[in-house]
Amino acid sequence: MQTIGSLDELRAAVGAPAAVSGYFTLDQRTIDTFAELTHDRQWIHVDPVRAAAESPYGCTIAHGLLTLSMVTAAFGQCYRFPNRKLSLNYGFDRVRFTGAVPAGSRLRGTFALQRIEDVRPGEVRCFWQVELQVEGAERPAMVATWLIQMRY
């Protein structure tokens, strides 16, 4: 876990090697819960029998938006910001779901701070290059640029 305690330390982190989270599992129960919360009950996510028979993956897969939502959990394993006064999710640029996440897969996140833009004194917008990777897969399941506004 990396600690970034000031705006100067945050600026110094631009271009540093990516931080990598530990693995976490996206199991069928989590997928089903997400389906209920979002009312997205498409069979490829929630019907293991049909997915085994008809899906090109041979099983159910996680929703892309569920995969995207796991970014915060992985990020929290990589960084802490003890002196930060405020942090706001500003959104995502170029989110791409580049690989399926089969139920029961283990995922991890990688985060690299690409650049920072000043917003006002003591506040910046950070552009993080994010990948979520399925253990054993050749390519990431999701890639995006995540914008977070931070105030120190």
From TrEMBL:
Gene3D superfamilies: Hotdog Thioesterase (3.10.129.10). Residues 24-120 form the MaoC-like domain. InterPro entries: HotDog_dom_sf, MaoC-like_dom, NodN-like. It comes from the Bacteria. This is MaoC family dehydratase. It comes from Cupriavidus cauae.
